[in-house]
Design goal:
GO molecular function, one term: zinc ion binding
CATH topology of the largest domain: N-terminal domain of TfIIb
CATH class of the largest domain: Mainly Beta
Protein name: (northern house mosquito) hypothetical protein
Keywords: Metal-binding, Zinc, Zinc-finger
Radius of gyration: 22 Å
InterPro entries: Znf_FLYWCH (IPR007588)
Number of helices: 1
Pfam families: FLYWCH
Shape: globular
Length: about 130
């Protein structure tokens, strides 16, 4: 009986220690490390990168994201992140499926689909 009580007490201590560790790890991982996106390498999908971002107002008064020669349009805002779609997503010729998410002014995450067209200039026209 005494041995069972000691084992149960130790298991409770381990569970308490694990909960403290889990809460600490959540606090640490809620701000993930974001590697910089170097050169013209194709980024990995679903990985946060730390780079300066350029937002510009369009003629309708909403914001567009300009990044590496592509223009993205605001789609939906969640808690701290904004989802963006390629401005060619509604085009009947290309119907681009590229998506990105941003957090603040310097974090970006790319979706699994990449652009099926070339870069565009500031007016939205292809080079």
């Amino acid at each position: 009986m005494f041995l069972f009580f000691c084992v149960a007490l130790r298991m409770k201590q381990i569970k308490t220690d694990f909960n403290k560790f889990f809460q600490l790890s959540l606090a640490v991982t809620s701000i993930p490390f974001c590697p910089p996106l170097l050169g013209n390498r194709t980024p990995l999908p679903k990985v946060w990168y730390s780079v300066p971002l350029c937002y510009m107002m369009n003629r309708r008064g909403t914001m567009n994201l300009h990044f590496r020669g592509f223009i993205y349009i605001q789609k939906k805002r969640h808690n701290r992140t904004m989802n963006w779609v390629c401005n060619k997503s509604n085009s009947s010729q290309t119907s681009c499926k590229a998506r990105v998410s941003t957090e603040g002014d310097n974090k970006i995450r790319f979706g699994v689909n990449w652009h099926n067209h070339g870069e565009v200039d500031g007016t939205g026209e292809a080079f």
